[in-house]
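New here. Invent one.

***
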Amino acid sequence: MKLHLIRDVVRAKEIVSILIKYRFDQILKQTDTPASWLAKFVPSSSENIPLYRRIRLAIEELGPTFIKIGQVLSTRPDLLPWELIKELEALQDRINPLPFETIQPRLEKELGCPLEEVFSEFDDTPTASASLGQIYKARMREESREVAVKIQKPGIRRTMQSDLEIISWLVDQIHANVEALTAYDLPTVLEELRQGLMLELDFSNEARNASVFNSLNQFPEQVFAPEVLDPFTTSRLLITEWIDGQAPARANFTPQLARRIAEAGGNSFFSQIVITGFFHGDPHPGNILVTSDGRLCLLDWGLAGQLTTRMRYALIDLFEACSKRDAAMVTRIALRLGRTPHRMQRTQLEKDITTVLFKYDADLRRMDNIGTVIFELVFVFGSNGIHVARDYTLLAKAIISIERTATLLDPDFNLASVGKPFIKRLNWERWNPSNLARHVWGDWREKLTQLSELPQDLQRVLHRMEDGELPLTLEHKGVNRATNTIHHAFSRLSLAVIIGSLIIGSSIVIKTGIKPLLWGYPALGLIGYLLSAGLGAYVAFDILRSGRTTDPRKD
């Protein structure tokens, strides 16, 4: 990727300087970056800081784009070790809010009118500020309801796109020059992250996810997402109902009420992943509020996952295999979960899975920390070349987050015990005779339909061939060699005819005695003889050479 010379060069120098500061210059020196001379002017950080912490500190100093990438990477146990992910979870989005004078023009542009026409009250002090946007509290003029107004910061898209260009160029350099990192296919990973960041920049995606959850929610009296005001939603503006509540860590409830709220959250989460398949991708304590009437409100729906029926069946199989600590069964499930490389060492995969199961043996007996177990298993799958769907990695992180959030309310909370009725329900849906019969009949009907349509498909293909729309290319192994052999044979035969003609013609000329003479013989006849001899020698040499170089195995 080419960098924009004027726009990117200063920022690129800043990025390289920060990477050198945190002692990543050895990697940079293997690329085309000016790391060698910049290292002379950039002081390194303390030698005692561990590697993973240096990565986190460098990301925080590099700014919003890198922080967002780090936060997304913290949901990818298939790519990163658990220790690094735990460090990335500590990333702080320390962004000072922009003054309201800077935000107001963007807000009015998205509304399409002055603020006074939409809001009767608007607090210009933001209640929250992050790298992408700021949130304000306001009151609608027509309905007189309190709302949360989330507006994207001006210029953030341009900033992120510029940073992503620099990162992409740097990643391409590392992928091409640092052999130890080539196997990670960093350009492909970065492209996936870029798509995720662009999706997060679209606030209408967050609005859509929240609305989908509310429509599928089986426990609306216990758990909900803020209602979205669709008429005002754009890609840069999101307006939802205002929710008054407390974070789980600060909630002050009786033990009985706290236990009931934690159980409600667990029921909702298992309903999301097992029944509907649509789940909140990051239900950490900062994204959950507990209302005064004991309901849970799930905020920030920018990250959501979707599991198909087949994926949900594989998930409960994985839960069962982990509970039995059956490494062979986990291995078989892993091979079903994602794309498998051609040269995968199945024995090594099973050994790595066994190591994880032994490591968490005590937890698995009680079915505690199941999210952490799945998180590490997903990393084992990825390190052995099995690329699982992104939704599985998102789910592993979500399980850990919901366990942490629930234990803040109820220290004795056990997610597995809450999930048993839902898993039992899904197993019944999967294996009851009527559903099995319906699935079998559906599969057969689909195959019979495909079989009945086969003659029509063949007829369409033949018609396209007749009309010249479908060119047909036939290639037979060895045909090219046979063609070359025939060509050489005819070339030699042609030369033989020419040589014979020259000899006969020269003999006739010699007999006539036509002048000029050379050594008493007609010169034209002698030249014909010499030319015939030269051509004959060439043919003989070509035949001998062809016989030596021909490999009879290359047919």
In short: Residues 440-469 form one domain. Residues 549-555 have pLDDT under 50 and may be disordered.
